[in-house]
TrEMBL record:
Pfam families linked: Ald_Xan_dh_C (PF01315), MoCoBD_1 (PF02738), MoCoBD_2 (PF20256)
Region named Disordered: 1-24
Cofactors (names): Mo-molybdopterin; FAD; Mo-molybdopterin cytosine dinucleotide; [2Fe-2S] cluster
Protein name: Xanthine dehydrogenase molybdopterin binding subunit
Keywords, sorted A to Z: 2Fe-2S, Iron, Iron-sulfur, Metal-binding, Molybdenum, Oxidoreductase
Organism domain of life: Bacteria
InterPro entries assigned: Ald_Oxase/Xan_DH_a/b, Ald_Oxase/Xan_DH_a/b_sf, Ald_Oxase/xanthine_DH-like, AldOxase/xan_DH_MoCoBD1, AldOxase/xan_DH_MoCoBD2, AldOxase/xan_DH_Mopterin-bd_sf, Xanthine_DH_Mopterin-bd_su
Family per record: Belongs to the xanthine dehydrogenase family.
MF GO annotations: 2 iron, 2 sulfur cluster binding; iron ion binding; molybdenum ion binding; oxidoreductase activity
Length: 779
């Protein structure tokens, strides 16, 4: 462990932290023995729930006849919003704009109106389809254009970032470009969909197993709808089969419905919607419409930027405020804007309320910035990489370190990251070869792009940047670990266990990783914003520190040595001249009545944010990376292949290089899907038509780059005092996939001899690529 980070002279740097240990459940994932909620043995008398969904996009509910639903064989109870004991609301931000069950008004096709509880899941689902509901249809719009045409209604107050004199400097700029970019949304498509099991207890108590990234919010929402205090609600999460942000708020409704039915009927209840219902009734990544205006000089240096980021938010606010805020926080990508004005437009639409998704608005903001670079490069006839490098943030003292939100970029390493990847990927020679290939090839065209990533780490809601952990050491020297973070396959449990094992210098198999539960660590933040390891690792370290201080004090007194003579060594403790096996040492401490348990806590330092003023330091640090991708397109069909991708990514001093490499690879492929194959489509009745794998195309294993070289920047170390000087790895590598879209754009631009920017929107499906090729032919 890094002594300069923790100022702990009693720990030797030889434990399992920073090692490539396997994911604690990897073998279970592969063999199918990992228990998810649907694998838990079902309690006696378990009942199953199903949703009754609206088939209108926007309408008043005139009448509901549920008699046929209630009469269906096996149905035990049917309930509506009027049967909610507490408040019929599951909004995550206190806005009270998201009813658990719609009562008088439906605002999107697929909105839950009632719930059915039956003896079997099949009976509940079949019965739910028998409802007779009368509607009075109201005007509806399901996309950004429709919202703007209807006055641009907002779900939350927009945010503005302003620095300098953008209006004046735009007029003074030697060159100026305006444009528009459409950026599509994305379905989370977890392997394990949403699910909740509620088990009633005595008095007002209820226990909920939920596939959620935010157990404390589930606890709050369940208490809210049942009108009971949070101390009566226990929420448990051992693992999720994927989260990606979609289980930060979207699990609320299933847990709440299960809990209401469990307390009403006195029996355990399970809600597990099928894939179509899950995709129809839960939120997705926000799609954006970016209007931009950029002023620049003849060299390609940006002078001023004015951009508006309009987003399809859905019918309620959910997390759209912070998502659109983060889009603006990343609308600079890796570039310094001397004068800038950015504004968000979180638009209301009659669609499911969109929510968190890996990157949380950052990818959309960054993609808009890369379009600016691309526009300038084609306007000047230059390599986009040269324009990128010209506009990078500078080092402290350069006068080029201030972001649009007035935070100084003090840890900038984007230039060396890009320079190293430029050399190792042989970018220049390959680009020249590709230009030559395109000159001679009639139908197949190639493209290559090298794009950077700068991603801010921290929740932009300052209060969420806190975490707790509970650590027990038992008499035999085994260690029990519990913290507020949740495991969704990303390896958080393994990393925090490594921190703890390293602190006590014991083998990691001595640390028992236990399910996240609100009964042990209260008031936890969501496992989101890439902060899981930062927050929970530090909280676990704090708990270990407390116990170790007691152990050192005990040993110093018992063996009459100085505290500095007590050192934790691998699986043993040196006290003066003697060495004691760790279990024996702990047993002696127990008999000396030393407290062997501690609750650790951590809050991120230095951060603050004033949304109204658009100023502050919302991020503790930045994570960096770069990707170089080469593609080939067929100009007759629009189909394409990803020939090669080289990635260099900054994770600081990695807590677990093997897990971090997996996160980088997975994030890139997921980003690749967002920008190429994954297209959400609603019809004119507001119905989501891409609601199953038959119509919604996630990337396959065969879609990965044919050559895929991924490396971590091993020379990097976080300048801030994070756990082990590591950096977050969950979200930042997602944006590496922007290199794919930029490479496709170059391939398309070759059809017109690179004279104009193709303005390729996302996702760049083969159809969009083909249409862009046809546009280029007319240039």
């Amino acid at each position: 462990m890094d002594k300069s980070t923790f100022e702990d002279p009693k720990v030797v740097i030889s434990g399992p932290m920073h090692g490539s240990l396997r994911h604690d459940s990897a073998h279970k994932h592969v063999t199918g023995s990992a228990d998810y909620i649907d694998d838990i043995p079902e309690p006696a008398g378990l009942l199953h729930g199903a949703l009754g969904l609206s088939d209108r996009a926007h309408a008043e509910i005139i009448g509901i006849d549920l008699s046929a639903v209630a009469a269906y064989p096996g149905v035990v109870w049917v309930f509506t919003g009027k049967d909610v004991p507490g408040v019929n609301d599951t909004s995550s931000n206190g806005s009270h704009d998201e009813p658990l069950l719609a009562e008088t008004l439906v605002q999107f096709h697929g909105q839950p109106i009632f719930a059915v509880i039956a003896e079997t899941r099949d009976a509940a689902r079949r019965a739910a389809r028998l409802a007779k509901i009368d509607y009075r249809d109201l005007p509806h719009w399901h996309d950004i254009d429709g919202a703007l045409a209807n006055g641009g209604p907002l779900v939350i107050t927009p945010m503005t970032l302003l620095r300098g004199e953008p209006e004046t400097e735009m007029l003074n700029a030697a060159m100026r470009l305006k444009g528009q970019m459409r950026i599509g949304g994305q379905e989370h498509f977890y392997l394990e969909g949403h699910i909740a099991v509620a088990i009633p207890g005595e008095d007002d108590e209820v226990t909920v197993w939920s596939s959620t990234q935010h157990p404390s919010e589930i606890q709050h929402i369940v208490g809210h709808v049942l009108d009971i205090p949070s101390n009566a609600v226990t929420v448990n999460v051992r693992r999720m089969g994927g989260g990606f942000g979609g289980k930060e708020t979207q699990g609320n409704q299933f847990a709440a419905l299960a809990a209401i039915a469990a307390k009403k009927l006195g029996r355990a209840i399970k809600f597990r919607p099928d894939r179509d219902e899950d995709m129809s009734a839960t939120g997705k990544r926000h799609d954006f419409l970016v209007d931009y205006d950029v002023g620049f000089d003849a060299e390609g240096r940006i002078h001023a930027v004015d951009a508006t980021y309009a987003a399809r938010c859905g019918f309620s606010s959910d997390l759209s405020g912070p998502v659109t805020d983060r889009a603006l926080f990343h609308a600079d990508s890796s570039y310094f804007y001397p004068h800038v004005h950015l504004q968000s437009k979180p638009l209301k639409t009659h669609t499911v309320s969109n929510t968190a998704f890996r990157g949380f608005g950052g990818p959309q903001g960054m993609l808009g910035a890369e379009r600016l670079i691309e526009e300038i490069a084609y306007a000047l006839g230059k390599d986009p990489l040269d324009i990128r490098k010209l506009n990078f943030y500078g080092q402290p003292g350069s006068g080029r370190t201030l972001t649009p939100y007035h935070q100084e970029v003090e840890d900038n390493i984007i230039a060396p990251v890009v320079e190293e990847l430029e050399n190792t990927s042989d970018y220049r020679a390959r680009r020249n070869a590709i230009i030559g290939f395109n000159r001679d090839s009639r139908y197949i065209k190639k493209g290559i792009a090298l794009t950077p990533v700068k991603f801010g780490i921290s929740f932009t809601m300052t209060a969420f940047n806190q975490a707790g952990a509970l650590v027990h050491i038992y008499q035999d020297g085994s260690i029990h670990l519990n913290h507020g973070g949740t495991e969704m396959g990303q390896g958080l449990y393994t990393k925090v266990a490594q921190v703890l094992a390293d602190s006590f210098q014991v083998d990691i198999d001595r640390v028992k990783i236990t399910a996240t539960t609100t009964a042990k660590v209260p008031n936890t933040s969501a496992t989101a914003a890439s902060s899981g390891s930062d927050l929970n690792g530090m909280a676990a370290y704090d708990a270990a520190r407390q116990i170790k201080e007691r152990l050192v004090a005990f040993a110093a007194e018992k063996w009459e040595v100085a505290p500095s003579d007590i050192v934790f060594l691998p699986n043993r403790v040196r006290v003066g001249e003697i060495e004691i096996p760790f279990p024996d040492f702990i047993k002696q401490a127990y008999f000396a009545r030393v407290q062997l348990s501690a609750a650790g806590f951590y809050k991120t330092p230095k951060i603050h944010w004033d949304r109204k003023a658009g100023r502050g330091t919302p991020f503790f640090y930045f994570a960096y990376g770069a990707a170089c991708t080469e593609v080939s397109i067929d100009t007759l069909t629009g189909e394409y292949l990803i020939d090669r991708t080289d990635i260099l990514h900054d994770v600081g001093r990695s807590l677990n290089p093997a897990i971090d490499l997996g996160q980088v690879e997975g994030a890139f492929v997921q980003g690749l899907g967002w920008l190429t194959t994954e297209e959400l489509w609603w019809d004119d009745k507001g119905r989501l038509r891409t609601h199953a794998p038959s119509t919604y195309k996630i990337p396959l294993a065969s879609d990965r780059p044919k050559i895929f070289n991924v490396r971590l920047a091993e020379w990097s170390e976080n300048a801030e005092a994070t756990i082990g000087r590591s950096k977050a790895v969950g979200e930042p590598p997602f944006m590496l996939a922007i290199s794919v879209l930029e490479a496709l754009s170059m391939a398309v631009a070759s059809v017109a001899d690179y004279k104009v920017c193709p303005r390729l929107d996302a996702p760049a499906t083969p159809e969009r690529v083909l249409m862009a090729v046809e546009r280029m032919k007319r240039v």
